[in-house]
Structures are given as structure tokens and as C-alpha cells.
Amino acid sequence: MRLLPKLGRKLRRWKKFKKSPLLRKLDLLHERCANSIQLEKHRSKIIFSISARKRAFLETSQDYISRLQAECTDNTDTSEPLSCQTRKQFLYNGTFHEAVGKVLLTAQLFAMMPVRGVTAKHPSSLNFSWLHVRTCCCLLFIASTLIDLSLTIYKVLDGPMSFNNIKPIIFRSCILLVCVTALNLARKWPELMMHWHDIEQDLPQYRTQKEKWRMAHTIHMVMLVGMMLSFAEHLLSMISAINYASVCNVTDDPIKNFFMLTNDEIFFIMDYSTPLALWGKLQNVYSTFIWNYMDVFVMIVSVGLAAKFRQLNDNLLKFKGLHMPPSYWSERRIQYRNICSLCGKMDNAISLITMVSFSNNLYFICVQLLRSLNQMPSVAHAVYFYFSLIFLIGRTLAVSLYAASVHDESRYTLRYLRCVPKDSWCSETKRFAEEITSDLVALSGMKFFHLTRKLVLSVAGTIVTYELVLIQFHEDQNLWDCDQSNYS
Amino acid sequence: MRLLPKLGRKLRRWKKFKKSPLLRKLDLLHERCANSIQLEKHRSKIIFSISARKRAFLETSQDYISRLQAECTDNTDTSEPLSCQTRKQFLYNGTFHEAVGKVLLTAQLFAMMPVRGVTAKHPSSLNFSWLHVRTCCCLLFIASTLIDLSLTIYKVLDGPMSFNNIKPIIFRSCILLVCVTALNLARKWPELMMHWHDIEQDLPQYRTQKEKWRMAHTIHMVMLVGMMLSFAEHLLSMISAINYASVCNVTDDPIKNFFMLTNDEIFFIMDYSTPLALWGKLQNVYSTFIWNYMDVFVMIVSVGLAAKFRQLNDNLLKFKGLHMPPSYWSERRIQYRNICSLCGKMDNAISLITMVSFSNNLYFICVQLLRSLNQMPSVAHAVYFYFSLIFLIGRTLAVSLYAASVHDESRYTLRYLRCVPKDSWCSETKRFAEEITSDLVALSGMKFFHLTRKLVLSVAGTIVTYELVLIQFHEDQNLWDCDQSNYS
Amino acid sequence: MRLLPKLGRKLRRWKKFKKSPLLRKLDLLHERCANSIQLEKHRSKIIFSISARKRAFLETSQDYISRLQAECTDNTDTSEPLSCQTRKQFLYNGTFHEAVGKVLLTAQLFAMMPVRGVTAKHPSSLNFSWLHVRTCCCLLFIASTLIDLSLTIYKVLDGPMSFNNIKPIIFRSCILLVCVTALNLARKWPELMMHWHDIEQDLPQYRTQKEKWRMAHTIHMVMLVGMMLSFAEHLLSMISAINYASVCNVTDDPIKNFFMLTNDEIFFIMDYSTPLALWGKLQNVYSTFIWNYMDVFVMIVSVGLAAKFRQLNDNLLKFKGLHMPPSYWSERRIQYRNICSLCGKMDNAISLITMVSFSNNLYFICVQLLRSLNQMPSVAHAVYFYFSLIFLIGRTLAVSLYAASVHDESRYTLRYLRCVPKDSWCSETKRFAEEITSDLVALSGMKFFHLTRKLVLSVAGTIVTYELVLIQFHEDQNLWDCDQSNYS
Amino acid sequence: MRLLPKLGRKLRRWKKFKKSPLLRKLDLLHERCANSIQLEKHRSKIIFSISARKRAFLETSQDYISRLQAECTDNTDTSEPLSCQTRKQFLYNGTFHEAVGKVLLTAQLFAMMPVRGVTAKHPSSLNFSWLHVRTCCCLLFIASTLIDLSLTIYKVLDGPMSFNNIKPIIFRSCILLVCVTALNLARKWPELMMHWHDIEQDLPQYRTQKEKWRMAHTIHMVMLVGMMLSFAEHLLSMISAINYASVCNVTDDPIKNFFMLTNDEIFFIMDYSTPLALWGKLQNVYSTFIWNYMDVFVMIVSVGLAAKFRQLNDNLLKFKGLHMPPSYWSERRIQYRNICSLCGKMDNAISLITMVSFSNNLYFICVQLLRSLNQMPSVAHAVYFYFSLIFLIGRTLAVSLYAASVHDESRYTLRYLRCVPKDSWCSETKRFAEEITSDLVALSGMKFFHLTRKLVLSVAGTIVTYELVLIQFHEDQNLWDCDQSNYS
To answer: Could you say which protein family the record assigns here (chains A, B, C, D) (predicted)?
Structure first.
């Protein structure tokens, strides 16, 4: 019943999609045909020359013709690639909004990004209101976190402060900051997605559904793997905490022990009660999700932006080394410029999340490495600890590398410009090349640092240096005693 | 009585102002009108096409026409925006000299920047003379500081030297250095302000009083907030010192105790006497003001320079993506170049102050962080200490970010050049883009470092590293004992 | 018997080589001749002018003519340079494949790079198969290393972990990683060499055999010196171990003592047996070779790439400051671009090896420097230790400098472009100059860092910083006791 | 008697000098005259317009005419500036060879730079031979230093090694390295000076003797101040050593005590004898001179190179903002290129000295700062120590800043190119601007680092970091005991 109008809508969009690029590419194709005929002539003329370099050129022209033919086949008859795709792949038209829908839906289950219409087919369905249930949930969670944070601060300030002890404060402050930023982002999200959609529509489109599906596939994989590992880490954390609670048994009730250990900031000022314990547990689960989600979110946006650059680069690759008219380069330059401005807009919107994610990861890795110097109280601890540490380092590395891929892809365009033949080198290509050379397109942490591959090395170097300094600082202190909770 | 000639002068200036930009923009407007007619034609011609990209262009042209109309309205009939402005805003013509007048006047109350005519309407009224009362006050204060510094050095060298103990020497040396630099700057100030004024007059002018008033508003806010916080910090420092003096009571007289604590360098070699105590207190108040003022001054100059770049950028934004003649770009390029050269001149004039401000803040943050490791002797101390530390870090961050905004605004111009349409891309736009790309326009600390957002990260990194190293160095030493004065 | 067909093949290739550049340079030479006549006229006209700068120009033209004549002589009559070369040099045609043949053959003796046809004259003879004996040997060694690594991890995890103790794990992991990477590289090797060969054939060829032989000579020297020093280091290590074994004599049998010391990870869980000891020794020798070979390999590839840039630069030097047609510059630009893309391909293929080599060297230098703080138990130890340390530092420096030479040579081209006369400055020269300026052509460690001369300074700085931090960390601990084996 | 031929030679050179620039500038002047007439017309035409920007332009043209007139006066009638100059200034024709003559002569007194003809008027008189007395002296000193170094190594290796103890080895190794490098430089010096002279002759010449004398004056001042301070430091060192020797009196003879203290490496293996003591003292004096001279030498070369860039910039300043023909810019570009290549040649020749100078200063500052943590045994020590430390830091800063001035001056040229009017902006100006932008012209330490102002900050940061790390390392150790000699 409900499927029919949906399918109808999809069909209409599909038709529109099939028409629009055809229309858009008519003039371009015309040029190409003229070009191809010219090339064919050229080919027959030079067919008898035998110099190595000439042969290379010949291969290029042959290659070009075959590429052109392949493309024509794609254009006129897309039935073949369609038939061999799964139904799921068929449904994707390759927009970021579509790919990111389920990811945002999952986030909304955990009181983040309260925007309606994330699974709708078109970003125009997106809207944000302060009165939605989702928004209220989100505000409720923020209030709850605020209370939790206050309790934590009260408990931590009671004892001596150190690099290690302020971990729960840092953790909960980051969660709070990210939640508020995400709420703010949700307000801007409909507009951002519309902007993204407009730019996407203007880009050279992929021919096959497989290529269209690629970005969505990567995004889903990132989300899935990230959440799986996060879930595994949380389970191990619980097992380890249960184990630990049985050692430092304050009371006779093991469940009570467990909750008093994992939510010590609550029961530091209040007596134990099951509702409070449940609230603490819920808060814990939500916090852990958000803590992982902020990294996943930065990765997903990076994947989306990098995919748009790749889409442009794939088109440039098709015509690499060929004689293209200035209008081709002008069009590509404007598309490149659009993606750059999209990058800038997204960066402005999420750079606070990026910064929190990065500094948070850096701090946690340092604290974990510091703890690694101590003897583990049990095997369960050791397993949890090393899994958690490796997961943390892996996640940080993944965020860095995915974010750096935006910059890498944006620089990649330069390679195709380097191969423009002498005769086709015009004012437009020059301007294009100069703009790519002089601009730094990358996600950033509040513009204080840009996420490039060089940053990964600096971060690694910083961690090692901190570690060496920390080693000396906390040499003899045992961090695994019953008084201190390490389960935040 | 006195208001009438003032108002008359203002009216004349207002008339002049209203005429001069009109004259200056006649030829430019002419071009625009021609452009607009052409666009209107273009619009009617393309009104039936429906491609997405064409529509975007259409919106641009519609947008352009509405912008042009809005502008024409502004030009021919400014009565509306004028009537809705407050009297204060009406008075501003948007020059830096005018905006900075009261800030400099305040500084002169504290024996700095002894130049006459700072509140005059035109920078030509500025003049410096060695024989003015203000200059003499300034020289007197420098002499007084010199004596105080000598006494401090004598006292400090008497005991063992350490990173923490030399704080009073560093503090007073910086005050002295800044005072002498400010005196030197005062000599050059009239010339600098004339240069600034000339460049300002040549820039594209704002239409509304509100826009003109913006820079002055920011400058006044920076000054006000900076001075308020500085005053609060000084009060807290006094309360904390009174509290401290009552604990380490050397004599029975609490006032005497207080002065002997806060000016220990004086009473280390001299007996207690009320005039000396008052001199010490005065010296203390003045020093504290200057210590804060040097940061505020760097911020204010930064705000001024960034506002000039923004003025140019706002004009470029108006015509973003439109077909402009080469003469437009040539004019903008020369204006950009002028602001750059102004930046260079201001940087040469104040870079010593910038450097002192930065290194001083860096050193004080390190010392304060070092002290934070010790237990606080009382609650008053703790409140003062944390307020002081947060104020210090906030001030340093504010200086860094305001100073970095000059660089950010200067790079922002590039965005508008990236949107120049293909047909309007000419030798002038290219030269403009290349110059922005290759120049580094920013305030600097003696050219050793440039104040950009990247620097903030380095500074933060350095502070953390120093802190970690310092932690180990002073681990067990108690810095809060009665023998040592921490009230410099 | 076998020499004849080889010689015949060589002769044919030689002929082909002699013909192809002639053909390729006919049009170029034609231009040059026209140029030369024009210059001669110019010379007679300006012969009487006496200004200093004119004279300089005159010298240039004279120089040009003499260079042209020298070149003509080279072209028409190459018998003279041929006759004065040794037979060995005669055999080289200057390709990288030929130069690197014996180096790869040596590597294959130690179970690396299992690709067939490395000593063949043409890279088309290269092929890789999983079923070759060499591949099987390689896989066998990888399996053997894996077992050894497991034993090592088991032994190390048994005791407390420290920066120093994990050395055997790091060592064996690196060996394993490099072996697997080399196996993977072997699969891509035939294709890479074909690409390299194609680009080489297109470059301006050297005239004399001596110049052709130069690259091969450098490569062989690097290999020889590297292996000699590595052999000497291994011998010293054995002498030192024998000496050490006699001090910490566990059993009466000195040979058994030696093996139990050098392969303590095997005999930690198994009883002593001669076959196991021999396996351990073999594993040891192979590991040591591979540990040295990875550095040598990076050096050799760097020498090869730098030589290709030099080949281009040598051609540009010949025509430095002369009036060359745009076609000349276009050709050179494409050749430059080809070498750049070759660099990129080689970098992609070997960057993991580069990274392992660098981080490994960095870690080992730090560990060795750390050990240098302890007293040496004997003179044999001291000699071995300091030889080993100096060898390590020298090797790291050599890798850095050879790798940096690729970047240096790629930038060198810019100098010749700076000397292009005003009249010959065209769109092509400009594009060439801009491309060199904006590209960073260098080997890299997984793109995280680029191997330039600046890196050497950073690495040196890092080592010194680490050393100073390490000094404090392990101050009192004696690392030369019998319980710990330092012979990995 | 001897003065007459000298004066005759000078007169002839003077005539030649006066003629050659006139000849060289005839065509340029012609253009200027045409320009001037045109400007005069332009001026009369625009004399009535009153816009602010027009007025600015008018001022420019008036300024230009006055500049041109001033220049004409200079050209036709130089008697006035000549008459008011001292005789000494009259003698200079502004070449680097002439300016550096006495500096090299002084160096030769201390067995360095053994090249003949340094005080000759023309660099063609320079020559180097292995058989000169100077060369023999130099070789003798190298041999003597080698012996001294061996003795030092023997003594140091006898005790435990530390950062502080190896100071004498570092000191003597640096001296030896610099001596050998200077000997090698002496061989290349005649050629370098001829190259320098050729480039100098081609540059736009100064009109007045005062301007010509400026570079020589700076060089002499640097040499004088450097040597004076070095002499003062050596005297203080001796006084402090005498004072110290009287405390740790080994024997009764105070002179013997002094020599046994300052040359402890000699008397560690040999008995005391006066000739040995004198040799040690001589060696000491020479070493101290060379240790200071290497810094002074780097400064002097920097002053020379920066002066050449300034000479070019002064010419560009003269015609700043005016309409100049492309030939003018082409000429300037080639001159700029020549100075760049001169920089490169000089850098290649002296970069080892630069590197030794820098690393040596860095090490010595660290060692001195480390010693500053200990209590001084006497006032003489304290005075010497602080003078020495401040001198060391000042010298390092001076070397850095003078060397950085080469880079600063080379970038300064860009400012004049930014002011080229729209109509005069041509291919040549563009090429000039791009070349300056993309090249890094600076002295370097073996190309590992470039001497720019940014380096100073890094060096300062490194010193502070090292200091903080060193503080912890040597906290309790007393470095001022009688067993250790600190007088190397």
C-alpha cells in the first residue's frame, strides 16, 4: 500500500535523473563527436609511423575512442548495468543525503541530530523544529548530562586533581559539548543538505548504479564497523567492571556493587537506589554511543566530501590527456569551486565536533598509555584494556585518514591538469591549476589545524613525546586501586 | 554654546562625505548602469530556459538587480537609515582615528601614549612634543619604574634564582619596555594616523551609519571588557593579599602588613613609611593597567586593520560573481595593496609591543600553571588564583584570535576572486589573486613569528609541553610560603 | 658458447639505440642549425661592441657554438668515446633495470624479491609466479620468521615490558613486514620496470658510455659498501656474543652457550638441539641481511630516480641560457612529468618499506643511544657497540640523503628555467616553471612525511630530544646483564 | 714614493668607473627623459583636477621629476658629494673584495684563509698556492690542532663521558673542521671573488661615495666589535682562570698552576715544561680567535650579499610606482638572478662553516646555561661567566639576524613589484614576481636548514626546551670542582 506511491516517486525521480544529464551533456557530447572524428582521421594518417612516442599517442587515441564508445553504450543503453544490480543498489541515486539517512536515524535513537525527514528521498523534506519529540529528547538528554557533569565535578574536586583523575570531567564535558553542537548543527542541517544536493546535481553523474552506490556503501560500512567495535568495547568494559566490582566488594549485592562502581559520581552524594542506578546506566550507554558517534560522524562527512571530489576526478580521468575545449575546463573548475565551498560550509558547521573529537582522542590515548605502565589487576582487565587502547588508537587513525582523504582527493585533480596537452593549455586550465595549487581544501579543527596526512605524523609524534614525559611523571603511582573509578 | 560649532563642523564633514564618494563613484556607477541594462536584456532573453544551472544564473542576475536597486536607494536617499540611528552612531564617520580616540585618552591617564589631539575629529590635529605635560608624566613614570625595577632586581638577586622567583623582574622589565616603546610610538603616531586616514578615505565607503559604527563599537567593547576584567582581577588580588597579609602578620598594623607584602622590594632595603607605601601602590596600579593595556592595544590595532580588510571584502561581496570591468579590479587591487602596506607600517610600529605581550603572557601562564600544582593557603587565594589564571589564558587567546583575524580577513578576499566569471578573468584579476596567494599579511612579533590561527595551536602545544616539564621540575617545592611574595 | 647470442642481442640493441635518438633528434637538430647560423651572423655584427654585458653574451654565443660543434662530433662520430671505454662499461645502455639486476639477484639469495629475469637485458623478460622456486623459498622464510616472531613475543611478554625489552619484537616484526611487502612488490615489479623502461627510452640519451655507466656504478657501490659494512657488523656482533657467552656461561659447551644466547627466544621453551640452533643462526643471518637490505633498497631506488632527473637536467644544462623553441620546452616538460609520475608509482610501491626502514632506524638509534649510557662489560663489546652505533647512524643518514637527492634533483630543473632568455619565455616555459614550483616530488613514508633534506634535521632533532628524555628514564638500570639478550 | 703609483691606479679606476656607468645608462636615461617630458605634459594637463587620488598621483609625478633632476645633478656634477667625503671613503669603489680585504688579512695573522692579494684593489690579483708561507702556516696550525685534539680525546675518554665533559672535544673538533674548510675555501676564493666582482660591476651603481662606503663600513664594524668582545672575553677568561688556579693550587708556582689548568690535556700525559705551556697558550689564543672568527665570517658574507640585494632594491625604490619599460624589468630580473646565483655559490662554499658555527653556538649555550645552575666559586667567575654567556647568546643572535637579512632583502624586492602600475605590468614583471615568490634565497647550513628569521625562533625554542630538560638531568651535580677544567 505504502510502497506504491514511494515507488512512483522513485520512478519519476529516476526518469528525471535519466533526462537531466542527457540534456546537460548534449553540447559536450557534440564536441566530443567532432573530436572523435578528427582523432580517427589523425589515426589513419599516422598509422604507418613507428616511433615509440607516436605509438604511445596512438594508444591514447585508440583508448580514447574505445572509452568514447563505452560511454555511448552507457548513455544509450543502461539496461545492462541496471539488470545486474541488486534492488538495493538500484534505489540509490548517489546523493549524500540519501546515503547518510540511516546513519542520522541511528543517531536520533541516541538523542542526537533531531531533524525530521532524514530518510526522505529529497533533502527538501528535512525540517527542524524546537517542538518535535526528537528535539525534546535531545534537550532532555542535555539536561541529564549537565546534572551528571555537575555531580562528577563535585566528586573530582573533592580529591586531589591530576592528569588521570580529571578523565570523567573531560569525558562528560566533551559529550555535552558535542550534544549542544549537534543540536545546533541539526538546525542548519536542512539548509546544508539542500546546498549539498544542488552541488551534487550539477556534478558529472556516474553512469552505473554500482558507482553511485559506492559512497553509500562506504558510509554504511564505516557506521557499522564503528558501532560494532564500540558495542564490543562497551561489553568488555562491563565484564571488566563486574569483575572489578567483585574484588572491591563494598556491599554484598553484586549488582549494587557494579552500579556503585560505574556511577560513583552519583552515589558519592546520594544513597543507592535502583532508579538512580538505571538512570546512571542509561546515561552511560548514551554517552558511550555519542563518544564513538562523534568520530564516526566526522568520518562520514569526510567520506561524503571526498566522494564528491572523486566524482569530479573520475570524470577528468576519462578525458585525461585529450584535447578538450576551454568550456570543459571552465565547467570543471566551477564544479571544483562548488565542492570547495561545500567543504568550507561543512567545515564551519562541524569543525567544533572535529576539534572535540581530536583533542578528546588525544587525551584518552595519553591517559590509557599512562595506565598501561601499571600492572593489570586481572586478565579481564588486561583484555579490556588492550582492546580499548587498540580500538582508541585505530579509531583516531581512522578519523585522521578519512578526514585527510578529503585533502588528498582535492589535490589529486592537479594530476589531470598536468597532462593537458600543449595545444589545449588555455587561460582556464591555468586558472584551475593555480587555484588548486594555492588553496588548502581540508576539514579543520576550528581552523587551528587542518586534517591532512602530515597531521597524523605530528599527532603520533606528540603522543610519543607525551607518553615519554608522562612515564616519568606517574612512575610509581598505582592507578588501579579500588578508590579510583576508571569506568566513566 | 559649545555644541553649535561642533555640530556645524560635523555637518560640513557630513556634506563633504556625502559628496566625495558620490563624485568618486560616478564613473563606476556609470559602468554599473550599463551593466544592469545589459543584464535586464539578458534576463528577458533567457527567461524561458529551465535548466537548473541557468536558473541559478538567473537568480544571480535578479539578485544583482535587487542589490543594485537597494544600492541606488541608498545613494539617492539616505534619510531613512539616518533617522533610525542614535545620535552617537551619527557622529562616527568610520575612521580608525575617531574610534581609537577614547582608548588612547584612557591610556594617557595611565602615563602612556602622550600624544595630543587624540579626541580631535581629524588626525591632522595630532601632535607630539617632548614638552607637553603628558610626555613629562610619561617620562616621570618611566623613571619611577626604573627605580622600582632596580629595587626588585636587588631583592631577587639576593636569594636563589628560579623560574618562579624572577617573575617580578620579568613583570617590571616588560612594563618598562612597553612604556618606552609606547613613547616612541607616540612620536610616530600623528604620521601613522594621517597615513591610515588617507588609505581609509580611498576605500569603498559604507552606506549606513550602522556599518560605519561597527568597528568603533568593537574597539570600545574590547577596551571596556578588557579593563573591567583587569579591574576585577586587581581587586581580587588585593583581597587575596589582605587575607594573606593577615596570616603572615609581620607587624600589628594590617595596612602596613599589606603594603609590606605587596611592595616587598621597596621595604627590603628601606624602612616603612606611608609616602613610600603610596608610591608603591600607585606604581602597582599603573603597572597592572599597562600590563593589561598592552594586550588590549594589540587587539584594538588588529580590530582596526581587520575592519579595513572587511570593508574591502564587503564591497567585493556586493559584486561577487558579476561581470566587472578590469578597472574595478585594478582599483580594488590598489586598495588591497594600500591596506597591506598599512599593515606593514603598523606592524613595524607595534611589533615590539606584540612580542613583549606574547612572551609575557606565555611566561605568566607557565608560572601560574606551575603554582596551580601547589595547595592554596585559603579560599580567597583559590578564587583569585583561578580567576587570574582563566583571565590570563582568555586574554592570551583573545589577543591571538583578534590578531589572527587580520590574516584571516586578508585571505578572505581570495574567495571573491575565485568566483570571477570566465569572461571577466583578466590580467588584473590574475595579478590580484597571485599577490594575495603569495603574500603573508599578518601582525608579527618582530617578524620572528606571524600571528595566525596556526600560531595559537603552537602556543597551546608549547604551554602544555612546558607545563609537563615544569611539573617535574618543581614537584615538591611549596611556592605559597610567607617568605615569597607572589604579588607583583 | 652462451656469450655469442648474448653479444648478438647486445649489438642489435646497440644499433637500435644509436638509430632511435638520431631519428628523434633530427627535427631538433634542424632548428639548432638554423639557430647557429643566425647566431654566427649576430656574432659578426656585434663583434666590435665592447660593453661588459655584451661580452658576456658573446661568450655565451661562442660557448653555444662550441657546444653545438662538440655535440655534432658526438653525433656523427662516436667511435672515439667507445674505443676508450672498458668492456664492462660498453655493455651498459644506462637503464635502471640493467643496473639493478645484480642487486636483486643478491636479494633473491636471501629469499627476497622472487621475480625471474632480473639479469635479463630487457625488462620484458621479467615475470612473477607463485610457483617459482624463488617464491616458495620466500614464502618458506616468511613462515619461518612468523614462528620465530611468535616465540619472541612469548618470551618478551613473560617478563616486564620496556622501551628496551621489546627490541627483538620490533626487529622481527619489521623483517616480516618488509618480506611480505617485498613479495607484493615482486608481483608488481615486471610492470614497474616496463614503465620505467618506456620513460627511460624517451629521455634525452647520454652520448658517452661513461655517462651511461654512472648510475649503475653508484648503485653497485651503494650495494657493495652497504653489504660489506653489514657483514663486518655481523662478524663483530658474533665475536662480541662469543665473548659475552663465555662470561655468562650457562653450560660448559661454548658453542651451546653461544647459540643459547643469540637465540634465547627458541631455547626459552624448547630444549637445546643442534638443528634448532642452526635454524636460529640461519634465521639470524637472513634477518640481518634483510634488515640492512631494506635501507640499501630505498637508497638504490632513490639513486635510480635521481639519476633520471639528472639525465634531464644534464640536457637542460647543455642548452642553458640559449634561445630554444617552445617545442623543446614542451618535450622537456612532458619528460619531466613522466619522471614525476614514475616517482609517484615507485613511491606507492615502496613507501611501506621506506616507512619501516625509517621508523626502525629511529627506534634502533634511540635504543643504542640509551645503552651507550651504561658501562660496557668488555672491550669487544665496546668496539662492537660503537661500530654498530656509528654504522646505524651513518646508514640512516645515507638513506635520508640519497632519498632527499630525488627531491633536490627535481628542484634543480628550475635553475635552468630561470636562465631562459626574455625572448624565449613562452607559455610552455611558464607552465613548466609553475609545475616544478608547485609540485613536491619526493619519496615518502606512506605520504605521512616526505624525504627531503629538511627531514634529516627533524630526525636529528627528534633523536636528540628522545635521547635526553630517555636518559632520565633509564638512568640507573643496567642493561648489560646476563638475563637479557641484546643479540637479536 | 709608494703612494704615487697607487694613486695613479686609483685615478684610472675612478675614471673608468665614472665612464662605464654613464655609458651603460645612456639608453636607460634616454627612456627616462622621454618619460619625464611626457609626465610634465601630463602634469600640466591634470594640474586643475582636485580629487584626492589624483593629487596623490600628482605628488608621485612631482616626486619623480625631482628625483630625476636630483639624479641628473648627480650624474653631471659629482664634485659636490666628492668634496665633502673623507679621503678614506673616497678610496672605496664599493666592491665586496675591497671591503673584506682587511678582514681576511686579520684572519691570515691567525693562520686562516691563506690566499694572497686580499688587499689588492682588483680580485684578479688574488691567488692561492700550496707553497706560500701563509698556506704552510695554516697547515702547521692544523697539524698542531690535530695533536691537541688527540691529547684532549685521550684525557676525556679516560673519565666518564657526559654532555658537559665532552666540551673540549667539541670545541677543538670544530676549530679543526673550520680550519680545513677555510683552507679549502681559500683555494676557491680567487674564483669566487672574480664572480662576485663581475656581478657587482653589472649592478646599478650608487652615485655617492657615502653609499658605496656603507657596506665596507658595516663589515669593518662587525669585525671590530666582534674581535673587541672576543678579546675582552678572553681576558676575563684568563683572569678567572688565574683566580681559579690560586684556589686549586696544585703546585707553588702560580704561573705553572695557570698553565696546568688551562692546558690540562697536555700535562695530563706530559710533565710540565715552559715550551709546552707556551705552545698550549698559543694554541689557546689561536683557537679562541678562530672560534669567534667563524661567526664573524658568516656575518660578513651575509652583510655582503644583503648589501648587493639592497643595491638593487635602492635602484627599484628610485623608480617605484613609475611607468618603466619592460627592458628595465628584464635587466633588473637578470641582475636579481645573478645575485641569487652568487648567493647559491657562496652558500655552497661556506655552508659547512655556517653549520659548524650554528651547532657549536647551540651546544655552548646549552652547556653554559647548564653551568649557570651551579653556584659560582668566586666573583671573578661570576663576572666572566655571565659576560661569556651574554656574549655567546648575543653573538648567536647576531649571526642569525645578519644571515637572515640576506633572505629579508631578497624578499623586499617584491614590494616594488607590487607597486608597478597596471599599464606597465608585463610578462617580464610577472616572471620577476613569480621567481621571487617561489625561490628561497638564503644562506643555509648544508641545505638542512635555511637562515631566516623564523629559524631564530626555533633556535630560541630549542634552547629553552634543552635547558629545561638539562636542568632535570644535572640537578645535583656540581660542575665547578677542581678536577674538571672548564677552560678549553
So the answer is: Belongs to the insect chemoreceptor superfamily. Gustatory receptor (GR) family. Gr5a subfamily.
The conformation of residue D116, written as its DSSP 8-state character, comes to B
* Beta pairing, strands C449-450 & C444-445: antiparallel
Residues of D in contact with B201 (CB under 8 A): 52
Residues of D with a Cβ under 8 Å from any B Cβ are: 51-53, 56, 408, 414, 418-419, 422, 425, 430, 433-434, 437, 453-454, 456-457, 461, 465, 468-469, 471-472
Does C51 contact D24 at a Cβ distance shorter than 8 Å?
yes
For residue C252, give every residue at least 6 positions away whose Cβ sits within 8 Å of its Cβ, in sequence order, or none: none
pLDDT at residue A344 greater than cutoff 80: yes
Q: Which grid coordinates belong to B81?
A: 537609515
Query: Could you tell me which residue, B415 or C56, shows the higher pLDDT?
Result: B415
Question: Taking the model in full, what pTM does it have?
Answer: 0.83
Whole-angstrom distance, CA of residue D65 vs CA of residue D33: 10
- Name which of A448, A465, A466 is nearest B457 (Cβ-Cβ): A448
CA distance C334 to chain D (A): 21
- The rounded percent of chain B whose pLDDT value lies above 70 is 75
In a 13 Å sphere around the CA of A113, the CA atoms on its Cβ side amount to 22
Q: Which chains touch D (3 or more CB pairs under 8 A)?
A: B, C
Beta bridge partners of C127: C116
Q: Do A471 and C466 touch (CB under 8 A)?
A: no
What ipTM was reported for this prediction?
0.79
The answer, yes or no, to whether residue B230 has pLDDT greater than 80, is: yes
C434, C448, C472 ranked by CB distance to A472: nearest: C472
What integer pLDDT is reported at residue D464 of this predicted model? 78
Tell me if residue C450 falls in helix, strand or coil. Answer: strand
Shortest CA distance from A329: residue in chain B: B422
In A, minimum Cα distance to C197 occurs at A52
State pLDDT tens for residues A51-100: 444 444 444 555 555 555 554 444 444 444 444 445 555 567 789 999 99
> Quick check: C320 and C412 in contact, CB under 8 A?
no
D-side interface with C, Cβ within 8 Å?
Answer: 20, 23-24, 198, 201-202, 326, 330, 337, 340, 427-428, 431, 434-435, 438-439, 447-449, 462, 465-466, 469-470, 472-473
Is the distance from CB of B115 to CB of B137 less than 8 angstroms? no
Name the residue with higher pLDDT: A192 or D488: A192
Residue D101, CA distances (Å) to A278, D4, D342, D354 in order? 88, 21, 19, 20
Closest to A331 measured CA to CA, from A15, A27, A64: A27
Within 8 A by CB and 6+ apart from A344, the residues are: none
pLDDT score at C64: 53
Contact C24 A456 (CB under 8 A): no
Mean pLDDT of C24-31: 45
When pLDDT is averaged across residues B113-137 and rounded to a whole number, the result is 91
What distance lies between CA B471 and its chain's CA centroid? 34
For residue C252, how many other CB atoms are within 10 A of its CB? 7
Cβ neighbours of C163 (radius 10 Å): 16
Kindly determine whether residue A202 and residue B457, on different chains, have CB atoms separated by under 8 Å: no
How close are the terminal C-alpha atoms of chain D, in Å?
Answer: 48
Amino acid at C209: Q
Residue D330 has its nearest CB partner, among C53, C422, C454, at C422
Does the pLDDT value for residue C174 go beyond 90? yes
Q: B275 pLDDT band (50/70/90 cuts)?
A: very high
**Residues in B touching A449 (Cβ below 8 Å):** 454, 457
Retrieve residue B477's grid coordinates. Answer: 617545592
Does D119 score more than 50 pLDDT?
Answer: yes
Runs of H (alpha helix) within D92-132: 96-109
Residue with cell 578572505: B412
**Side-chain half-sphere of B102: how many Cα atoms within 13 Å?**
10
